[in-house]
Amino acid sequence: MDFSFxxxxxxxxxxxxxxxxxxxxxxSRKAIIASPTGVSPEAWAKLAELGLLAxxxxxxxxxxxxxAVDLLVVMxxxxxxxxxxxxxxxxxxxxxxxxSGNPVLLAMLEKLAEGSLRIALAxxxxxxxxxxxxxxxxxxxxxxxxxxxGKKTVVVHGGQADLLIVSARVSGASRDRAGLALFxxxxxxxxxxxxxYRTIDGQRAADIEFRDxxxxxxxxxxxxxxxxxxxxxxxxxxxxxxxxxAIGIMEALNAQTLEYTKTxxxxxxxxxxxxxxxxxxxEMFMHLEQARSMAYLAAVKCAFGTVAERRRAVSAAKVRVxxxxxxxxxxxxxxxxxxxxTNELPAAHLFKRLTLLELTFxxxxxxxxxxxxxxxxxxxxxxxRAAA
Length: 388
Fold this sequence. Notes:
The two termini are 15 Å apart. A hairpin with a 2-residue loop joins strand 9 and strand 10. This protein has three domains: 7-117, Acyl-CoA dehydrogenase/oxidase, N-terminal domain (Butyryl-Coa Dehydrogenase, subunit A, domain 1, Orthogonal Bundle); 120-225, Beta Barrel (Butyryl-CoA Dehydrogenase, subunit A, domain 2), CATH 2.40.110.10; 229-387, Butyryl-CoA Dehydrogenase, subunit A, domain 3 (Up-down Bundle). The chain is globular, with a radius of gyration of 21 Å. Helix 10 (307-336) runs antiparallel to helix 11 (346-358) and helix 10 packs antiparallel against helix 12 (364-377). It has helices at 7-23, 26-34, 41-49, 68-80, 87-100, 103-106, 109-114, 228-263, 275-304, 307-336, 346-358, 364-377, 380-387; strands spanning 119-122, 138-142, 145-156, 163-169, 180-186, 192-198, 204-216, 220-225, 265-266, 269-270. The protein is built from 13 helices and ten strands. Helix content is 52%, strand content 17%. The strands form three sheets. Strands 1-4-5-8 form a four-stranded mixed beta sheet, with helices on one face. Strands 2-3-7-6 form a four-stranded antiparallel beta sheet, with no helix packed on it. Strands 9-10 form a two-stranded antiparallel sheet. With 388 residues, the protein is an alpha+beta fold.
């Protein structure tokens, strides 16, 4: 399989890299994190100008119709540049809308493409951990719409969003896959309370409460009670983007660690000359390259694979990337010494972001269990074909 990028993808990555290097450097990022909102309207406008917001939007809605593979290129660069803008949540939210087939919602994508709409994913609750179907937020039918009540926790960029993608239960028990519904709700709708805060990686999140929030039926994503398949597919799409972002971060962390070991001296010579530390750097590189291959495969299967192929590839990637994130991050901190955990160096910020990405859209243990379950459930004939 050819994993080479097209010239257009390479040019897009180069343009984004120049912006992040020249206008979104380490000191600029620190100032954005310390601002009241934790994001930069100027940087968001620049992402729109570069076409990154229009990239995943269908051409009928003013976008470029990009796939998960195109977004992989973008996420790698955003990871390398430690961007704290709400790009990940917004493009994953756009995927929910794209899969809805709802013309009212699809019309909103033009605003997203031009940069005037930000989306957050209000999907998880305090008891759910990584189980997306573990939903207690309720949506009861009322008139021509629904009334939504419940609480969502750690909604990334929930305080900065204009639109919330919300999972709620119209029937069934709290962990049933049947009975789920998905809604696109205005973030400022009556009955919504948002408590915004900063996370350890410099991003923003919010705990959101819905108190009898009236939602029109035109804001429904898919059919009421049949939201699981869309939820599962889009969460896998998001996990593939997380893997891509992690690749960019690990590339940056490896490069900075190598540079540090060339300048840090011990016993009269750079520590990069010590064979034991050279072996560690080689292991870090090997972990990165193995993780990169799995991240690329996950993106391809999200764009072009079957449901079974997508689920297995995404879980395999999340496991391998998770293992690599842990090893590369820990070794980078060790090789930096005490400086590796201070906010003065980018290495600490990169490590913190990797730590949060491990927990995003399912951690290593969750996806390992899912991969095993998918392998057991896969018919014997299909396993033989895959092995062949």
